[in-house]
């Protein structure tokens, strides 16, 4: 086959889309086409109105409702198509809006905190170069370093808890547990995911934190170690369920093949199942990490709320602040740069977790195509 | 208007009845903007902010929402068993509590328990949030334990042209320690020592002269932006923006501070009077040779107005441009705030929460301020 | 060749050696339980147990277990015990043994001999290396028992000799001060030793070799699963025990005691905690407004997210060609799904609040939670629709039925169970979320019953566009998770209203847990039911 | 349109589409290009005519230049080894291949002389007239009645639903008759008449398959395409289906794919043999194909030498 | 243990288990209870013996009272319509049914006279001695060498891995020999000897299946169970596998399930015919079964009248 350049491929794809639209226009009854156009245009207008905080938003929205109602009765096929299409677009739009809004709000403080390297002024760089957060006493600084440190500490501990325990539990559920046991353990793990984080936080704040402070003779309460453990337990169900999916997607024929040469179940698991599902399992751990990074309430009520690095850096017995708890604690009275700095924290969270999510999906996709294509 | 009580609420026992407001003359628009020029807006009155002021305004709010009858005697009015304080000064009105205070601003009485002319609610956070919220129009009343000028870094003129400052009581901000510190014999500190602790110059109790208690100091602070924190920096550290590098932990609200002090050893904190207890013990503070003691009977006490940490407790209301003759109030705000500005309110809501009531002169000037909208003379009940 | 490695097809009867290994496993189990009990202070370290000081007892048991394990391995090596060992214990076991010895070596070198950090690292490497070699080099029976047996015996001896007694303390000497106490170290060290001992004993019980490893691994994996379930159980039981008194405070049962519902029916039970708000004149305080607020939040989020998510899922599964676009949407929805809830809160704060009267409101909370629910609905609906067999679609198409008709009459009904289950589980998740509503909806902390949000009654018609308004939607209300958060941070100001603030808080936590878990229970039950029904049909 | 006319038009297509046929000829052995089957003569009219039909799945050429006439009111069997394109051919007769994104169809198929691969063809109408029954029974997870009434309802032949009921237009009498007629035709009525409201998934495999046939009959097709309709069934159910097909042929044109030679021999009037590569190798009277196949490979295949 | 002894013990089991046999008799035709096959006499010893084997999947009685002796060093074919329990029977010979939670096995199976359904049986050892090859090739996603060496490595017959290499104990010479021998036995050596380190998934279907056979041989089994090993393969690959089975029978006891009568006739020494309902209906010399079946149903089945 001839090599096809990227742009050619894109043009071809675009051409195909145009063709699709043309086919649709061609195949559709003109009356239906009018209705569908009215629906699309009015909805777009309503959306623009909403974005612009206009009082008139309701008018195009009413038109949209009326057109949809009419279309539903008279041209259900086309209306359904257009409606579901707009719903899909809205989903994408929401992601887009999240990106636009949290990035937009974070711009001013990035300019305030720009630093110069090699004669180039890089916006926001200072937030990552020095480690001082002080929103009250001059010099006012909005460093993200302490919160990043806190988030990393919590995530590391959480992963150390959720990773091994989660993978072992997934192995248990997908390979070892008899049906009856699985019927109980699996919903149990799911229920674990359902316990609201504020309940964990409540128990953490009133029971665990004082206990930990007593055990380790720390000055006051709030430690990354225990926030990490609690968050790890919260991330556990995510790891278990995704890893279990990966493990059970390894074809039964491979497992039987191994058992049939006379290996133990455990050998089959470690030599065949786990390696084959390795990428899926790592994706599970990655997603668990994502959960841990984004966990808010338990951290907010358990941490100390003073953005500062622990001393020494590996001191897990002290817990200062994470990106999430910074937002939850300060959104109320923050204004100006401080508010924007919270949005910077939001952006860091969002981007990190998005990258992790995409990475995990890529890994999973590769595993599936490998297993699917090979066997 | 809302006939309330979705789900299982309704006229159940205990007086927690469903009906809220009568919506005489209300047009749906007013209820959204939270202000109305015609004075009969009966929508929910919202307050938000300082955890220091919260006990005062929340107790007030629950009295208001109860709309107790004058025959109650326990919360309002008088009967053979008891009489509420300040009842005489109010002229022993034959009205329910919220009906009475609201009627002075033109509201129709409902004459129903648990059904005030308009309902109220108080949100808990801290002063910075309250000040932000009231200036942004998110709430009707912004509670603050620090002056809004310090909270939001405003000039005096800006503050005066934007909000009305309603002072409802005073707090003698105590410095508290955990009970093990008291047991170690530390019952008083100098202002300088407190400053040194909070600026990381003293980190162990045994670094304080004459103390033999080897225990790291757990210095607890309030959230930046809280009135207590601002007032503490201002009055103790000398500057609203003073550095506080010695703080080990910060909590959003006074209650968490109280809980942390009682749960941990070697703790010190600054807070509001209402939150002291046996395990959260105020210490005497020595300012330039004057010892202010927590004991009300002492020569100088932290309840005195010359105690440097003494501060006003504010309920700010927004001056709205579309309400030129309201004097910064709508009728609901004025009616609710007015409830605190008499002997009944000061005794129950302010002293009852361990705060310091306003001196009579201040009370009078505050009352004059809210009279702007009143339909009756307020100054002389 | 077959004869070369021939081993018995049928295992012999239980022998004395089996019994010894079984006793060792039992011993580890006992130690495990004791360690957990000590960790949760059910067993006092300073006290005594069966007449012996606790630490001494633990030490003695550890020494006994270590001795048994090592003896078993050596016995097998010299041939007293019939086993089936591999040539070596393998890398994993070697690392497993090296790690605790590294810790011990490091600790002893740096602390006992005072050699500092560098000395500690060297000591650790030496001790760990020796343990590694001792595990890796000899035959499996020795390698997987002796180093671990020695570890157990060492730790046991340390406890027995009182080197680490109940009062032991190790100040880490950090700027932010922290210490390792005996209270912590003794149970944790015992716990790990019990795990190691149990592992080695299980291997011995399986007579080493493939079967032995299988046994060893299974012991750990089962224990892990058991611990997770136990943890869940304890957590829930804990909240229930703490919360129940508050919840049941003032409960009355009998004709006519309850509030009226639906106009005339009087409930025969009266549970003030869930039927009241907080009010001065109440005998018992409750959280009704928060419960109702949560319900409305969920209803709003579902009304927003479910049509949108299901619609998008329909488009992606039924209309769109599988390709770049669907892939992009998939990536986006998965990204949305993992987006932290606080980021949704920030988004709602920046995007919704300015558009709904510039104040926190129920509507903003509903939509924010709706945004969170959307990806979950989309993903699960999509999965459910993909799992509808293509045969149905083909059959319908072959009858000449149009696409949308097919979707509506065949695909959607068949996918419904999956969609419903997904939605319910999603609802369970958002119902317990605090962070997003913190920024978009949070209302009062102690809300009177009279202020229970009434969305249906709140609708009213107005003279100007949009001609219909609902102030209840545009007003903040309370919700259970937020209420709990507020109760953690507040509490005073309950004043005389709430006699037992702590009970009130735990009861709130219990109610929240009940509400959320009942969503989960319904979701899981629904899935079970639908699956069962599919199986039988 | 008469049979002869169609044959003419077919030859025209051949000629115009010359490069195609050129290509086809080049790489083939003599035996494979033999066109004995094109000459297959039958009594009566041709219901459907495929001319030079090519089907591609992406780059995969699954069906190669198939031309074949299907006579009215008879059973035509398609046999051949797995993957030879039988299903593909069948699915191109009612354009079910349109549903596969990768599939592309070249050539012509006519139903009663009308080209079905042309713009503006009404797919709904086509598929109503050319019904289809699938390999494994695929009843909808609804009641038996709903399964049968599904097609007519969606086509508006019978009205149901809340609105119709409110307007008094749901003629349930009509629906009952329709359901009964279809079930009787599919020889299922006796077995299910007492439980029409039970879920169809509760039926046995053979009953399900007859239900699918009834469902197909209920929209009043003229041609019924069946893709290995009995391969998932046990012998007894298979026998019932075979009987049913026999009786259907009196009224309908039936095209059936089967991998079971005996079955093809038992039930079909004419048989078309496809061989690997998507080619139609032989087509003629069933008796003749089975007793006296023209090519060696067909003989090998029929006698089970491979496949 | 000699053949006669086993037969005796079998009869004992029958007698003791009387209610079972009573029940079995009640609902059956005379033909089905005929036990001609039990008497099947063969030369040499019985390698495996199943006695009164019942298998249930939950409530589903998939295999009903099967008794059958499998002679050493020969090929035994199991044929029968789909779902009749052939695979179930095969999988109970090396207890692969244990992996299915719902499956329950009653009765006895002996390997060299040792009961394999008893407590304390070493499954690893059993499966080493009774190997299995599956319907579709299932190589591990590893190199060809690793696939072959997988079993021996796990059994500790050859050592590999980092540690063994560090300790100088991995005897790669031995491993090379083992791989070569297994591949040669499986007639694959010539085709893959130059690419032993390539991923096994890159092989063709037929090669993959031979690789799986080689993998099975590498652990030195005595019995090899094959479940339709050629059904997923093309005719050429099938022929190779058949040749291979032929040669394996010299050294191993082979049991093979097939749905292809010709295949059974070509390669097996004795054939067992299962019919729907999980019953073994006839068992005997392949020639005899195919030329002169005892029951009408077997004859119908073999001649393709149904199935
Ligand atoms: N949806 C599809 N996408 C791509 N290729 C397909 C598709 N369906 C069939 N094919 C290919 O087209 C060729 C013919 O397939 P078809 O299903 O028509 O064969 P068949 O004769 O029906 O076989 P069988 O007897 O197994 O059903 C095969 O090579 C097959 O792989
Ligand atoms: N894992 C299982 N769970 C439940 N039932 C099963 C399972 N495996 C097989 N069965 C049932 O047991 C019966 C016998 O199945 P088996 O697979 O042994 O048949 P088979 O003769 O091998 O058929 P085929 O030729 O299709 O492979 C069938 O009715 C089948 O549905
Ligand atoms: Mg086919
Ligand atoms: Mg089978
Ligand atoms: O009164 P504060 O809660 O703001 O300190």
Automatic annotation (TrEMBL), chain A:
Among the GO molecular function terms of this UniProt record, one is:
phosphate transmembrane transporter activity
- Name where it mostly resides: membrane
Q: Where is the ABC transmembrane type-1 domain?
A: 148-360
Q: Which InterPro entries match?
A: MetI-like, MetI-like_sf, Phosphate_PstC, Phosphate_Transport_Permease
**Transmembrane residue ranges:** 31-50, 56-73, 80-103, 109-129, 150-173, 193-212, 224-243, 341-363
Q: Where in the cell is it found?
A: Cell membrane
The processes (GO biological process) annotated in the record are: phosphate ion transport
Gene3D superfamilies (UniProt xref): MetI-like (1.10.3720.10)
Topology relative to the lipid bilayer, per the entry, is: Multi-pass membrane protein
- Purpose: Part of the binding-protein-dependent transport system for phosphate; probably responsible for the translocation of the substrate across the membrane.
Name the protein family: Belongs to the binding-protein-dependent transport system permease family. CysTW subfamily.
Q: What is the official name of this protein in its record?
A: Phosphate transport system permease protein
Q: Which organism is it from?
A: Haloplanus vescus
Write the lineage as a comma-separated list.
Archaea, Methanobacteriati, Methanobacteriota, Stenosarchaea group, Halobacteria
Automatic annotation (TrEMBL), chain C:
* Topology relative to the membrane: Multi-pass membrane protein
GO biological-process terms attached to the record? phosphate ion transmembrane transport
Name the major location.
Answer: membrane
Keyword Membrane attached: yes
Q: What Gene3D superfamilies does the record point to? A: MetI-like
GO MF, one example? phosphate transmembrane transporter activity
UniProt name for this protein: Phosphate transport system permease protein PstA
From TrEMBL, chains D, E:
Q: Which GO terms describe its cellular component?
A: membrane
Where does the record place Low complexity bias? 1-28
Ranges for the region named Disordered are: 1-34
Top-rank lineage group of the source organism:
Archaea
Query: Matching InterPro entries, A to Z?
Result: AAA+_ATPase, ABC_transporter-like_ATP-bd, ABC_transporter-like_CS, P-loop_NTPase, PstB-like
Question: What's in the keyword line of the UniProt record?
Answer: ATP-binding, Cell membrane, Membrane, Nucleotide-binding, Transport
Q: Name one GO molecular function term.
A: ATP hydrolysis activity
Note the Pfam families from the entry.
ABC_tran
Might you name a Gene Ontology BP term for this protein? Answer: phosphate ion transmembrane transport
Q: Which NCBIfam families match?
A: 3a0107s01c2 (TIGR00972)
Name of this protein: Phosphate transport system ATP-binding protein
What is the scientific name of the source organism? Haloplanus vescus
Output the lineage of the source organism.
Answer: Archaea, Methanobacteriati, Methanobacteriota, Stenosarchaea group, Halobacteria
């Amino acid at each position: 086959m001839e090599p096809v350049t990227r742009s050619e491929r894109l043009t071809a794809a675009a051409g195909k889309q145009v063709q699709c639209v043309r086919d649709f226009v061609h195949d559709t009854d003109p009356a239906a086409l009018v209705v569908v156009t009215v629906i699309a245009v009015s909805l777009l207008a309503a959306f623009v109105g909403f974005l612009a905080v206009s009082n008139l938003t309701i008018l195009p929205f009413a038109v949209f409702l009326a057109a949809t109602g009419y279309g539903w009765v008279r041209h259900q096929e086309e209306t359904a198509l257009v409606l579901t299409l707009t719903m899909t677009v809205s989903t994408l739009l929401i992601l887009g809006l999240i990106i636009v809004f949290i990035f937009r709000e974070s711009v001013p403080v990035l300019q305030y905190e720009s630093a110069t390297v090699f004669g180039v002024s890089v916006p926001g760089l200072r937030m990552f170069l020095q480690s001082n957060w002080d929103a009250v006493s001059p010099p006012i600084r909005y460093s993200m370093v302490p919160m990043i440190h806190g988030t990393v500490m919590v995530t590391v501990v959480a992963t150390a808890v959720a990773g091994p325990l989660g993978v072992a539990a997934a192995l248990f559920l997908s390979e070892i547990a008899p049906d009856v046991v699985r019927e109980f353990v699996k919903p149990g793990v799911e229920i674990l995911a359902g316990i609201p984080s504020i309940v964990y936080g409540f128990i953490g704040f009133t029971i665990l934190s004082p206990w930990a402070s007593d055990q380790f003779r720390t000055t006051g309460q709030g430690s990354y170690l225990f926030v990490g453990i609690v968050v790890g337990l919260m991330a556990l169900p995510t790891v278990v369920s995704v890893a279990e999916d990966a493990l059970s997607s390894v074809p039964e024929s491979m497992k039987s093949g191994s058992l049939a040469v006379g290996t133990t179940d455990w050998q089959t698991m470690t030599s065949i199942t786990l390696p084959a599902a390795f990428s899926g399992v790592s994706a599970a751990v990655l997603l668990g990490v994502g959960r841990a990074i984004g966990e808010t309430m338990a951290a907010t009520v358990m941490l100390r709320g003073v953005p500062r690095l622990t001393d020494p850096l590996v001191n897990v017995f002290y817990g200062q602040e994470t990106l999430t708890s910074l937002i939850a604690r300060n959104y109320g009275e923050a204004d100006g740069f401080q508010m924007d700095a919270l949005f910077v924290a939001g952006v860091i969270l969002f981007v990190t977790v998005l990258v992790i999510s995409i990475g995990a999906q890529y890994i999973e996709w590769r595993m599936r195509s490998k297993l699917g294509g090979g066997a | 208007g809302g006939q309330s009580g979705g789900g299982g609420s309704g006229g159940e026992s205990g007086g927690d009845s469903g009906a809220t407001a009568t919506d005489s003359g209300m047009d749906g628009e007013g209820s959204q903007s939270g202000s109305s020029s015609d004075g009969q807006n009966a929508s929910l009155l919202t307050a938000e902010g300082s955890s220091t002021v919260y006990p005062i305004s929340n107790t007030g709010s629950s009295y208001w929402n109860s709309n107790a009858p004058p025959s109650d005697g326990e919360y309002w009015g008088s009967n053979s068993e008891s009489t509420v304080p300040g009842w005489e000064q109010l002229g022993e009105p034959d009205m329910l509590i919220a009906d009475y205070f609201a009627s002075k601003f033109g509201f129709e009485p409902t004459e129903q328990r648990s059904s005030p002319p308009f309902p109220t609610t108080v949100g808990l956070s801290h002063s910075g949030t309250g000040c932000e919220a009231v200036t942004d129009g998110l709430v009707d009343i912004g509670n603050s334990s620090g002056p809004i000028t310090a909270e939001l870094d405003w000039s005096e003129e800006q503050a005066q042209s934007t909000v009305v400052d309603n002072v409802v009581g005073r707090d003698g901000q105590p410095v508290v320690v955990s009970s093990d510190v008291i047991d170690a014999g530390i019952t008083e500190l100098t202002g300088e020592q407190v400053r040194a602790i909070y600026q990381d110059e003293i980190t162990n109790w045994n670094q304080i002269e004459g103390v033999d208690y080897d225990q790291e100091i757990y210095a607890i602070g309030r959230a930046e932006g809280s009135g207590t924190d601002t007032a503490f920096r201002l009055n103790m550290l000398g500057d609203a923006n003073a550095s506080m590098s010695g703080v080990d932990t910060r909590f959003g609200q006074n209650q968490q501070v109280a809980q942390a002090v009682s749960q941990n050893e070697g703790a010190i904190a600054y807070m509001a009077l209402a939150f002291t207890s046996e395990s959260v013990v105020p210490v005497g503070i020595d300012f330039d040779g004057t010892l202010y003691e927590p004991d009300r009977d002492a020569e100088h006490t932290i309840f005195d107005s010359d105690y440097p940490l003494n501060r006003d407790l504010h309920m700010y209301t927004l001056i709205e441009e579309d309400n030129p003759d309201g004097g910064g109030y709508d009728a609901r705000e004025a009616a609710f705030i007015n409830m605190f500005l008499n002997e009944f309110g000061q005794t129950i809501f302010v002293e009852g929460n361990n705060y310091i009531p306003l001196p009579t002169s201040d009370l009078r000037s505050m009352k004059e301020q809210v009279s702007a909208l009143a339909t009756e003379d307020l100054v002389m009940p | 060749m077959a004869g070369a490695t021939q081993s018995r097809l049928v295992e012999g009867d239980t022998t004395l050696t089996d019994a010894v290994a079984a006793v060792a496993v039992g011993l580890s189990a006992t130690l495990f339980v004791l360690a957990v009990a000590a960790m949760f202070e059910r067993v006092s370290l300073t006290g005594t147990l069966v007449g012996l000081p606790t630490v001494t007892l633990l030490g003695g048991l550890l020494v006994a277990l270590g001795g048994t394990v090592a003896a078993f391995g050596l016995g097998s090596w010299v041939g007293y015990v019939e086993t089936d060992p591999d040539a070596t214990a393998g890398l994993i076991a070697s690392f497993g043994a090296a790690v605790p010895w590294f810790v011990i070596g490091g600790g002893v070198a740096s602390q006992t001999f005072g050699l500092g950090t560098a000395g500690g690292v060297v000591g650790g490497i030496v001790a760990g290396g020796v343990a590694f070699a001792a595990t890796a080099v000899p035959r499996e029976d020795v390698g997987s028992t002796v180093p671990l047996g020695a570890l157990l015996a060492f730790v046991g001896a340390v406890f027995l000799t009182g080197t680490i007694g109940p009062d032991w303390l190790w100040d880490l000497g950090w700027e932010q001060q922290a210490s390792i106490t005996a209270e912590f170290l003794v149970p944790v060290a015992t716990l790990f030793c019990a795990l190691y001992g149990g592992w080695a004993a299980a291997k011995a019980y399986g007579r080493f070799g493939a079967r032995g490893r299988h046994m060893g691994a299974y012991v750990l994996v089962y224990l892990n699963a058991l611990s997770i379930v136990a943890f869940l159980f304890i957590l829930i039981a804990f909240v229930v025990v703490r919360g129940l008194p508050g919840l049941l405070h003032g409960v009355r049962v009998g004709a006519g005691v309850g509030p009226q519902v639906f106009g005339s029916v009087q409930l025969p039970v009266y549970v003030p905690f869930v039927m009241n708000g907080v009010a001065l004149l109440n005998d018992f305080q409750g959280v009704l407004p928060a419960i109702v607020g949560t319900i409305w939040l969920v209803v709003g989020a579902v009304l927003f997210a479910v049509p949108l998510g299901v619609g998008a899922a329909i488009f992606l599964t039924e209309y769109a060609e599988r390709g770049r676009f669907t892939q992009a949407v998939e990536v986006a929805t998965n990204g949305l799904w993992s987006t932290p809830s606080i980021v949704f809160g920030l988004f709602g704060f920046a995007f919704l609040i300015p558009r709904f009267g510039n104040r926190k409101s129920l509507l903003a909370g509903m939509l924010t939670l709706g945004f969170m629910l959307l990806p979950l609905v989309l993903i699960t609906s999509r999965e459910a629709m993909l799992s509808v067999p293509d045969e149905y679609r083909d059959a319908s198409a072959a009858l000449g039925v149009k696409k949308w008709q097919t979707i509506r009459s065949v695909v959607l009904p068949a996918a419904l169970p999956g969609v419903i289950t997904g939605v319910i589980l999603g609802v369970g998740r958002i119902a317990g979320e605090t962070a997003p509503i913190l920024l978009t909806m949070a209302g009062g902390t102690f809300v009177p019953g009279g202020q229970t949000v009434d969305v249906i009654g709140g609708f009213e018609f107005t003279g100007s566009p949009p001609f219909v308004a609902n102030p209840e939607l545009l007003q903040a209300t309370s919700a259970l998770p937020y209420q709990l958060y507020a109760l953690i941070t507040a509490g005073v100001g309950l004043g005389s209203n709430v006699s037992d603030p702590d009970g009130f808080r735990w009861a709130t936590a219990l109610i929240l847990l009940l509400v959320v878990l009942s969503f989960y229970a319904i979701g899981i039950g629904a899935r079970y039911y639908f699956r069962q029904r599919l199986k039988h049909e | 349109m008469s049979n002869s006319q169609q044959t003419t038009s077919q030859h025209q297509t051949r000629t115009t589409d010359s490069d195609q046929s050129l290509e086809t000829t080049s790489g083939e052995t003599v035996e494979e290009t033999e066109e004995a089957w094109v000459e297959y003569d039958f009594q009566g009219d041709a219901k459907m005519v495929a001319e030079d039909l090519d089907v591609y799945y992406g780059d995969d050429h699954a069906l190669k230049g198939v031309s074949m006439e299907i006579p009215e009111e008879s059973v035509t069997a398609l046999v051949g080894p797995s993957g030879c394109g039988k299903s593909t051919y069948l699915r191109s007769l009612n354009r079910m291949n349109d549903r596969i994104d990768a599939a592309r169809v070249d050539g012509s198929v006519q139903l009663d002389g009308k080209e079905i691969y042309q713009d503006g063809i009404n797919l709904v109408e086509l598929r109503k007239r050319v019904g289809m029954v699938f390999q494994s029974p695929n009843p909808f997870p609804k009641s038996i009645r709903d399964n049968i009434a599904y097609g007519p309802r969606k086509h508006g032949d019978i009205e149901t639903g809340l609105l119709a009921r409110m307007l008094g237009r749901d003629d349930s009498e009509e629906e009952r008759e329709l359901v009964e007629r279809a079930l009787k035709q599919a020889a299922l009525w006796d077995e299910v008449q007492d439980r029409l409201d039970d879920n169809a998934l509760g039926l046995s495999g053979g009953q399900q398959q007859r239900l699918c046939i009834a469902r197909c009959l209920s929209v009043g097709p003229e041609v019924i395409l069946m893709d290995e309709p009995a391969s998932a069934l046990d012998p007894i159910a298979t026998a019932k289906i075979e009987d049913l097909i026999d009786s259907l042929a009196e009224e309908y044109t039936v095209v059936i794919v089967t991998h079971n030679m005996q079955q093809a021999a038992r039930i079909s009037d004419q048989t078309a043999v496809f061989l690997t590569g998507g080619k139609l190798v032989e087509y003629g009277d069933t008796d003749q194909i089975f007793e006296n196949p023209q090519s060696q490979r067909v003989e090998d295949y029929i006698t089970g030498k491979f496949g």
